[in-house]
Design a protein that fits this description.
This protein has 305 residues and is an alpha+beta fold. The protein is 27% helix and 28% strand. The strands form two sheets. Strands 8, 9, 10, 11, 12, 13, 14, 15 and 16 form a nine-stranded mixed β-sheet that branches. Bound molecules: 2-[O-phosphonopyridoxyl]-amino-pentanoic acid (PY5). Belongs to the class-IV pyridoxal-phosphate-dependent aminotransferase family.
């Protein structure tokens, strides 16, 4: 899908024209995937555009950088402010936000510390990542034959650009086979996550999600759903899951910034069914919160103005 272009992108402290936001061909991270990034969303609320858990996302960016010995040449506060600046500059009411810190031009060896670290924040309007139909009626998922990166090989605790090769292989495989999204197992055969989402299973009134040690990213939406579940007094536990836990699930759903909360209606050609009561309750609450319609969760919204 083409990216809807807007006016400005924030790059290394300045707003530059969308078309001028370029890098050199010998950018280290273009060759070796040595960048770290975030995916964040801003939503339209009665008080204007609000970024969902902006500071938490930026903190994760710094954690990802820390894992890779990457010194981001801006503070947390500066990147939080820059995000608001670039949303304002483009006059967007809601958007997807893509901060990236990457090793730039200046070193072509594998020891990367000689390369500068560049930082950019791009924003653009982005609709439902897995489709409106998916949000309403659920998506068809398939377990990929590609296993999730082992957490001690390419750390899944980081959100690094290079590790997404793993997701891309899984995604291409299942899309070509006619499904909407991939589920990845780790090297031990336990479910890790979706190609770009965390995963939850509901059974007998309880929710289960794979632990981060399985190779799942510490998702901000995952964390939000766990907190919402607690408020609803729906038991929610981190537990190792195998693929048949999906086959016999009462309900299942993906969570992620791009995807939001998306029911899974079918897995490996086995019906789970239309979105069930737990999924609908959590999904409904999530969309209320991000739209600024739930006072109890207002602290998750960081207003642009
Ligand atoms: N797991 C993986 C592998 C992810 O890529 C993502 C986010 C998540 C889980 C969910 O994390 P969070 O809830 O913090 O967003 N994926 C990115 C996103 O912006 C990129 C998707 C194309 O949603």
């Amino acid at each position: 899908m083409p990216i809807p272009e807007v006016d400005k992108i924030w790059m290394d402290g300045e707003l530059v024209d969308w078309k001028e936001a370029k890098v050199h061909i010998l950018t280290h991270s273009l060759h070796y995937g040595s960048g770290v990034f975030e995916g964040i969303r801003a939503y339209e609320t009665p008080k204007g555009a609000a970024v969902f858990r902006l500071t938490d996302h930026m903190k994760r960016l710094f954690r990802s950088a820390h894992i890779y010995h990457m010194e981001i040449p801006f503070s947390l506060d500066e990147l939080v402010e820059a995000t608001k600046v670039v949303i304002r500059a483009n006059g967007l009411k809601s958007c997807y936000i893509r901060p990236i810190a990457f090793r730039g031009y200046g070193e072509m060896g594998l020891h990367p510390l000689g390369a500068p670290v560049n930082v950019a924040i791009a924003v653009w309007p982005w609709g439902a990542y897995l489709g409106e139909e998916g949000i309403e009626h659920g998506v068809r998922a398939k377990v990929s034959s590609f296993r999730r990166n082992e957490a001690n090989s390419i750390p899944t605790a980081a959100k690094a650009t290079g590790q997404y090769l793993n997701s891309i292989l899984a995604k291409m495989e299942v899309i070509e086979a006619g499904y909407d999204e991939a589920v990845l197992l780790n090297m031990h055969g336990h479910i890790a996550d979706g190609a770009g989402e965390n995963i939850f299973v509901a059974r007998h009134g309880s929710l289960y999600t794979p632990p981060t040690s399985s190779g799942a990213l510490e998702g901000i939406t995952r964390d939000s759903v766990m907190i919402i579940a607690e408020d609803f007094e729906i038991p929610c536990r981190e537990r190792d899951l195998v693929r048949t836990d999906l086959y016999i699930a009462d309900e299942a759903f993906f969570t992620g910034t791009a995807a939001e909360v998306v029911p899974i209606r079918e897995i490996d050609n086995r019906a789970i069914g239309e979105p069930g009561p737990i999924t609908k309750r959590i999904q409904g609450k999530f969309f209320q919160i991000v739209a600024g319609k739930d006072k109890d969760y207002d602290h998750w919204l960081e207003y642009v103005d």
